[in-house]
Amino acid sequence: MAKPVEANDSSFKQIVEDADKPVLVDLWAPWCAPCLKVGPIIEELAHEYEGKADFVKVNVDESPRIASTYGIQSIPTLLFFKDGKPMSQVVGLRPKEELKKNLESLMK
């Protein structure tokens, strides 16, 4: 099963911005209850979209520069990247189907 990749301030550009596929970035923290609930959803999506999209987790406590760069004020925040640029953003715990629609829109 595919698993999301961990990224940090130093690896983010290579993993996310230089990716040749759409990327879903989960900005989270271990103390955030909604973040812990969205984690399994991201893992399911990573399995379903294996080879079609990349999935990345960023702990905002350990990588504050990324959160600052993208103006993240609340977590969980999911950023959807295509061609190295953020195309959309979802804040808070959302249904899996909504996240799938965001991913599908990047694959057109």
Short key terms for the protein model shown above:
single chain, 108 residues, alpha/beta, Glutaredoxin, five-stranded mixed β-sheet, 4 helices, 5 strands, 36% helix
Question: Mind explaining what this structure looks like?
Answer:
This protein is α/β, with parallel strands linked by helices. It has a single domain (5-106), classed as Glutaredoxin (3-Layer(aba) Sandwich), CATH 3.40.30.10. The protein contains four helices and five strands. The chain has a five-stranded mixed sheet with strand order 1-3-2-4-5. The protein has helices spanning 12-17, 33-48, 64-69, 96-106, and strands at residues 5-6, 23-28, 54-59, 77-82, 85-91. The radius of gyration is 12 Å and the shape is globular.
